[in-house]
Task: structure prediction
Amino acid sequence: MPIEILMPALSPTMEEGNVSKWLKNEGDKVAAGDVIAEIETDKATMEVEAVDEGTLGRILVAEGTEGVKVNTPIAVLLQDGESAADIGKDAKAAPASTQDAISDGGQRTDAAEEGSKAAPQDAGEAPKASVPAAPAMKAAADPDIPAGMEMVSTTVREALRDAMAEEMRRDGDVFVMGEEVAEYQGAYKITQGLLQEFGPRRVVDTPITEHGFAGVGVGAAMAGLRPIVEFMTFNFAMQAIDHIINSAAKTLYMSGGQMGAPIVFRGPNGAAARVAAQHSQCYAAWYSHIPGLKVVMPYTAADAKGLLKAAIRDPNPVIFLENEILYGQSFDVPKMDDFVLPIGKARIHKSGKDVTIVSFGIGMTYAVKAEAELRGMGIDAEIIDLRTIRPLDFDTIIASVKKTNRLVVVEEGFPQSSVGDHIASQVSQRAFDFLDAPVITIAGKDVPMPYAANLEKLALPNVGEVVGAVKAVTYR
Amino acid sequence: MATAARKAPAKTKPRSDGKSAGLSAPKPVDFTKDEELDAYRRMLLIRRFEEKAGQLYGMGFIGGFCHLYIGQEAVVTGMKMALIDGDQMITAYRDHGHMLAMELSPRGVMAELTGRRGGLSRGKGGSMHMFSKEKHFYGGHGIVGAQVSLGTGLAFANRYRGNNNVTLTYFGDGAANQGQVYESFNMASLWKLPVIYIIENNRYAMGTSVTRSSAETDFSHRGASFKIPGIQVDGMDVRAVKAAGDLATEWCRDGKGPLILEMQTYRYRGHSMSDPAKYRSKEEVQKMRSERDPIEQVKARLLDKKWADEDELKALDKEVRDIVADAAEFAQNDAEPDPSELWTDIVL
Result:
C-alpha cells in the first residue's frame, strides 16, 4: 500500500507551513534519512527527511504552496512492486511517514474540544460539528483607534517586530538584547530583520546568561538607555528575577525618585504546547505582585503593537508577556503612523449584559470561544480583555459588574494567588452589593504542567469550564 | 609607620594568565604635597564619618543594617583620584565611603542613614541605597553581586554612546563567588566594555575567611577564563591604588576592555554593626591598624617630608570633624519623611 507523506509539525506550536522546495522528483528513489523537501515553519526553514524507503510516487503539494496544514498529505511514497497506478486505490493510504514522533500531538490541541474526541491527528483542526456554528463575533471597537481607520491583518509576531522597529527608528537610545535576537533573527522570529536595519550595536546577541544580561540591561537603563531585553521564554527569566525585582523595580523608590530603570523585559510566557513543566508557566501573577513594575499581557496583534510601543516609551520597568501560540495568529491592526495604546487600560472586547468574563493574553481564546457557545444558549456575555495586569483597570471591571452582576475570570496560570483571585477579592470588596452570584475563577490546574497530550489538556482551562462557570453564575 | 609604608610596593605584582601582555603592575608613584594632603583629607573624612555613624547607630539614630568602611578608605580614595568627569561608580552595601569619595553631600548621606527627609533618597533607601545621577554614583545595592552586572551595564551604555568614560564596579571577596560576576566578565570581555572590576578583598565574606570560601584566593586570577587581566594591589597604600587606577582607566579608555584590580585591604569593624567579629583575633586587627593603616601611612609621609606639622594636621582633622558634626547634627534633627512619601516614586 502506498505511504502518504504528511505535512510534518516541526515546532511545538506549528499548525501550518509552506512547502518551499522539493529536493526529490517524482520517480526518484528515496532512502530513509534522505532529505526530500524543505518546509518553512513559523520559525525557520527546515529539512524534511524520509522515514521510509521507496520511490516518490507523486507530489501532492507543489513547491511554493503556502499555508499547508499539519498532517495534510504532501506526497505519496511507493514501496517495492507498487506503481503510480496504485495511488488512490485504497480509500486511505497508510497515514504515516515523516517525523511521526513530532507530528503526533505536536501542537496543543484545540481547547474547545473535550478530551476523548481529539485524537492526536486532529490536533490544531477546527472544532467538530458538535459545537454549534455561531455567527462571527464582532469585537468592540477599541476606543483608541479612530473610527474609519484602515485595518491591516497582521500576526502578533509582525506586530511586535513592527513596534520595536518603529521605536528604534524614533529613539536612538532604544536597543534590543537577548539570546539569538540578532544573527539568528530571533528564536521565535520576533526580531526578524532588526539586525539588518539597525546593526549589531543596537541588536545585541548575548551569551546564554539571563541573570547577567538582565543586570547589564538594567545598568544600561539606569544610565539612561532604553533597553528591550528579550527572554527566549519567561521561564528562563527565573534566573534573572532578582534583577527584575530588586534592581529594576525598586531603584526609583530606593533613590527617592532620582534614578529609575526604563526597560522592557519581553518574551513568550505561559504554556506553549507539549514542552512540559519547566517551560510552561504563566508569570502574570508573579510579576503583578511587585510595586514598581508594570505588567502587560496582550492578546490581539493591535494590542501587542500599541502596548509594546507604549512599554518602550514608559519610564518604568515593564514586563511584557507574550505567548508563543498567539505569535502566528492574525488580527486587524490599524494602519497608523504611530499607534500607541495606554498601559493600564482594559479593552471591552465584546459588550454584553448577562455576565462579565474577564481574561487576558491567551486566556482570551477560551473566553472568546465560550462567548460564542453561550450566545447559542441565549446568554449575552461581556468580555473584558485586561491587556495590562499591573496597574489593573478595576474601573472597567467594576463598571461591567455593576451592569451584569456576574463575574467569571479566566487565565492559564496556577490557581493559588492568581490574577483572578485578586480580582475576585477586589470586586467582592468594592462591588459586593452588585453581585448576584459568587465570582468564579477559572485557572490552570494546581499541578506542574504534564507532558502527555491528554494530561496537558486536562491541566489547562477549557471552554467547557468557562461555559459551565457562566451557567453557574447565571443560574442556568 | 614610615617603614611600613615603604614595604607596600612589594605587594604589587603583575597578574599573569599570559593574556596580560602589555600590562605590567604599576609601581606606586610618590604623591606631590597637594596629592598627599588631598588623599589625607578625603580618607579622614570617610574615617570620621564612619566613626560618627557607628556612634549614632549605638544611640539608636540609625537602624537596620549599617556596614562601616573603616580601614578600607584608601581603595575608594586612590581610585577616585584617577577618574575624570563622567566616570561612574557602583558598589554594594558597604557604600558610605564610596559616596563620600564621589563627593555626595555628608549631610545627605548621614540623613539617609537616620531615615530623614533630607537624606539623599529622602529617607527611603537607607544605608545601602543611595544614588546620585549628578555625581555619577549608581548605588548602593543590597544583593551581593548584583552591582557587578549593573556596573557592566553602565559600561555598556558608555560604549553604546561612544564616550570616553569608564565604570568602576566594586565588589568584595564574598561577591566574587557569585555566578553573575562571571556572566558579566564574559560579556564585558566579549564586548570590550570599559569597566574596571575592583575586588575589595578585605579577607572576610561576612564571617567566612577567603581561605574557607574561595578555591582560588588570588582574586586577580578570576578573569583568566574570560581573558580579563588582573592585578593585585596594596589597597592600604593610597599611592598604589592611585597608580593602579591610572593604569586601569587608561587601559579602558584605550578600548582594551575590562580589567580586574584586586585591592588587598582590611576592614577594622565587623561586617555590620551587629557582627561581633569573633572569626578573627583582636591581635590580627590590631596588627593591621598599627602597621598598615592607610591614613597613618599618609600622615607619616606628610610629617616625614615636612609637608605638614602636627598642628596643621590637627587643624585639618578639626575641619573634617566639623563637617561630620554638622552632618550628624543635621541628620538627628531633620524631620522624618512626610507620610505621603510612602506612595511616591513607585512608578513615574
Notes: Confidence is low (pLDDT under 50) at residues 1-22 of chain B. The domain at 2-332 of chain B is CATH 3.40.50.970 (Rossmann fold).
